Amino acid sequence: MKIDTTIQSDVRNELSWEPSVNAQNIGVTVKDGVVTLRGNVATYAEKSAAEDAAKRVSGVRAIAEELTVELYGDHLRDDGDIGNTAKNSIEWNIVVPKGKVKILVQNGWITLTGDVDFYFQKAAAYNAVQYLLGVKGVTNDIRIIAPTVSAGEVRGQIEAAIKRTMEKDSNDIHIAADDGRITLTGKVHSWLERDEVDRAAWSTRGVSSVENNIVVSY
How many structural domains does the chain have? Predict the structure, then answer.
């Protein structure tokens, strides 16, 4: 098991290695495997890339992301421009149902609302706007109106998806289903595995929300 100082060094090196991140502006602290990132980044895309880089490091149990997006020069845009660009980006995305997503922009922060049928549509709307110029952050409040599927069927589908895609016994992961709301608990050995279980749950027919309480344990 890695000690905190080794994890800290590895995260710093991973941030420096990641070409889309300016690691000089990001501070890294670690306590009991929990990594805290602090500092300023130039774009929301860089903020996301820094968090993803930290997740890739073995030994990281959780991430507290306290990065601030500070836009300068050509990266600055007014809310009207951001809103129009976000609207066009979503309308041009063939995955997002037309007319289903509403956009609010305040001080560079985009909030998405509306109702869709599947999680992949909600994710597509987020992906369509997160890398736009001038965006400081995105809140995805789009709701999923899922069809009614029995709790047993939902659990079975998720367990089958985990077995198909992971070299792991799905018995280590506990799935609670209640009217389309899924709660995941248990332990995995990497963020990649945790994300894979999360993806399996969200991709299952009848799921409207997922609470992922799975712990990364090394």
Answer: 3
